[in-house]
Amino acid sequence: MALSVDTFFLNPEAQGTLQAQIQELIAAGILSGRFGVGDKLPSSRKLAKHLGVSRITVTLAYTELVANDYLSARGRSGYFVSDSAPVPPSYAPAPQHLRDSADQLDWQRHLTRSFTGGDTPRKPQDWRSYRYPFIYGQADETLFDHANWRLCALRALGQKDFAAMTGDYFDQDDPLLLEYISRHTLPRRGILARPEEILITLGAQNALWLTSELLLNRNRKAAIEDPCYYTLRDQLAHRRCKLDIIPVDDAGLPPDQIGDDTDVIFTTPSHQSPTTVTMPMARRKALLARARDIGAVVVEDDYEFEMSFGAAPSPALKSIDADGRVIYLGSFSKSLFPGLRLGYLVGSEAFIRQARALRANVLRHPPGHIQRTVAYFLSLGHYDAQIRRTARVLQERREVLEDAIAKHGLTKVRLGKHGASGGSSLWMEGPAHLDMGPVARSLRSKGVFIEPGAPFFSAPHQPLHYYRLGYSSIPASRIPAGIALLAEALRDAGD
Amino acid sequence: MALSVDTFFLNPEAQGTLQAQIQELIAAGILSGRFGVGDKLPSSRKLAKHLGVSRITVTLAYTELVANDYLSARGRSGYFVSDSAPVPPSYAPAPQHLRDSADQLDWQRHLTRSFTGGDTPRKPQDWRSYRYPFIYGQADETLFDHANWRLCALRALGQKDFAAMTGDYFDQDDPLLLEYISRHTLPRRGILARPEEILITLGAQNALWLTSELLLNRNRKAAIEDPCYYTLRDQLAHRRCKLDIIPVDDAGLPPDQIGDDTDVIFTTPSHQSPTTVTMPMARRKALLARARDIGAVVVEDDYEFEMSFGAAPSPALKSIDADGRVIYLGSFSKSLFPGLRLGYLVGSEAFIRQARALRANVLRHPPGHIQRTVAYFLSLGHYDAQIRRTARVLQERREVLEDAIAKHGLTKVRLGKHGASGGSSLWMEGPAHLDMGPVARSLRSKGVFIEPGAPFFSAPHQPLHYYRLGYSSIPASRIPAGIALLAEALRDAGD
């Protein structure tokens, strides 16, 4: 690669002759890894002009660097970083004169608060290297309709769509995507909403964040399910609102446990997260009635409704919401892939208008090209086909998983007659008094990834013996061996 | 299109016979625009099974709808939405039984605060339909390297990159993009930073938002330039921090005007926004010294450094920051396109770690496919070529614009010897006492779009006679006629 002359600057504070400074500059570039072996240096004429020094100064610096083996001269072709130049251990440091003195600030004092150290557990970036990845919520390349996705992306990259892809929407969204969600996606959940009642978000997590930011502060109270999606708890912690933590039973969130002073109720009626229980219709009605009685808003996180097999999906809570009290969250992360970062919020127009203004303030809008690609993928029918294919495969994996669990006598949490149809995970119970954290860690060395359940529970009474088995990224053929290793680890831990 | 049976739900609260309910359901779908002319209804057998009613009930409902001209029967092919079905005026309402009762909540009471009605002016979504769009910050399809962008996007869509594109990065970024920015982009600004000191953001606006969120609250004070980028003021208004509003002069932000109790200084040294003045080196040093004296953090928004022609870009303020006090914001919105929504933050590792945690909380990470596409576009050299091509064209437009302005005697704001090289806009001054708002509005009917300057100033002392002329989206050939119309409007307004 030719090194651009634009990346060369003399430090106005530097000591020493100009020639020495130029030598240091280049040596530092090589030692820091910025300049790689074989990279071509600018001509002495160009560099001299750029730095405002005489050409002979640059030539002398280059000659000296050749003598020191940093550079090699190739006749008329110019100067290159030498094959035998000192090699940096790995790319890292900037030159000493900046590095030593940098970060003299006490950031604790400058930051208004800390966002690190929340409840959200770190998942391994290298989960694909596990042989038995019972991980939840990642994409499986074997299930994804790569060919048609590429075609849709290409179409969205076409000249015709240039404006849609590249323009600044300010606070708006791709009208094609909004219309498709309004006309085709939401009706599948029994929801009828106009485009003005829909906001595209940067994934469902962003939708949750916008909602919490708009509806909660330190004087207000949120009711959350226990266990629940840990990142929701992190988000609410930053809003500093009061929390009403409500244990779920075998029909999900029990409405009669919700306190009178609750302002916002967060719930996952289709598949309670993480237990996967489905809330029956009678309880849904009771929940809405309770919310009406206490004047609370309900936030329905419908994070994986498409993954319903075994039984037809029940209509969303939002579909029986007669007074505009329910804010509905949808996501394409589970049905397409999480790296897409695309979800949506559905609610009353007055709420969506505010959510749109807040989103515009924070990030303007999700990238246009991605919105348009998804609009095509949906409207050409590829999405529905993908969902059907995925549901078939998940159902097969689920059956294999249930068999393996039964064979090894592992305990699936009892969820009543409503639980456990569809979804992409099982909620499991280890032996009481066993901490699944160390078990999960020891399993990693055997190539088995499982998620300990403790982080889903609200402190301080976190039970330690639950765990989650995701099956959206593990082939059915590997499930029995993975479960055998898990069963062995549980036996060992029990001894 | 075949209408999916999954979008049909009976309302459990509905009155009337099952047959009447089905008829209403379908009629409402047609009247609301959800079902279009020619759409095929599910077979009576399928719909009956799905709704749990007898097949004859569905058949009778269909027959009745045919009689009423909502549907037409095509022999054995089934039932379709009729050509002569009642047509909705435009797609809008949901069925009455939901619509009438929806939004019975007093959202004023439920929302913690309002985000609408800020200082950010609304720009027209249809600016491409203007013949003379002196709009700022939009993409020009004639300048964009569409072919290579498509190739990079395709490569990033390849099987090899599946994991990078689709995976959930949690709080991380694409390592390829981070490394490229670290090794090649930042060195052009004289900045040497490790990947741990860089965070990818959803555009520069998102970077500003994250920074404000981390460093400011109602007890702290921010110094901002006057005039400045209005959205920054909106963001700070929501942080409710104190403001020190400092008028810029012909060398940008004057350090000696910054109050002792300032915590964060926002500045745009390369091209002051919107005046375009470049801060000279002596003042940059004075600004850093002042920040050190009062213990303030400096936020450098380097929003369009690539658009420097006429003179080499000066190194960033961050490049002479010896103690890690400067937080640097970069963006690809101006050099690639704003719909990309990709920018980056550079700062001390302790700061970036917190910004990363906050970003993860709000939205996890910018979409993987977009990060990877940009990484390819950068590393294959297309970006540099694009910048050079764009700079050439902008320079030509600038010359045409300056000529037209001179010819018509319009007034460019005097910016001292340092101002006005490069960039993609001119900062203009109309006749004193003239409000450019109505002038800009009246020009729209003649196909001319200009931006009134008032929104850039902090209330209450907004001067009304400034305006901005962007030239990033208007061909050079149209500039003279557009400026002639502007000059005419100014003359008319002066009469």
TrEMBL record, chains A, B:
Transcription regulation in keyword set: yes
Ranges in coiled-coil conformation: none
Transmembrane segments: none
Keywords: DNA-binding, Pyridoxal phosphate, Transcription, Transcription regulation
Matching CDD domains: AAT_like, WHTH_GntR
GO MF term set: DNA binding; DNA-binding transcription factor activity; pyridoxal phosphate binding
Organism domain of life: Bacteria
Residues covered by the HTH gntR-type domain: 16-84
InterPro entries named among the record's database cross-references: Aminotransferase_I/II_large (IPR004839), HTH_trans_reg/aminotransferase (IPR051446), PyrdxlP-dep_Trfase (IPR015424), PyrdxlP-dep_Trfase_major (IPR015421), Tscrpt_reg_HTH_GntR (IPR000524), WH-like_DNA-bd_sf (IPR036388), WH_DNA-bd_sf (IPR036390)
Any one Pfam family match given in the protein's UniProt record, by short name: GntR
Family: In the C-terminal section; belongs to the class-I pyridoxal-phosphate-dependent aminotransferase family.
Protein name, per record: HTH-type transcriptional regulatory protein GabR
Gene: gabR_1
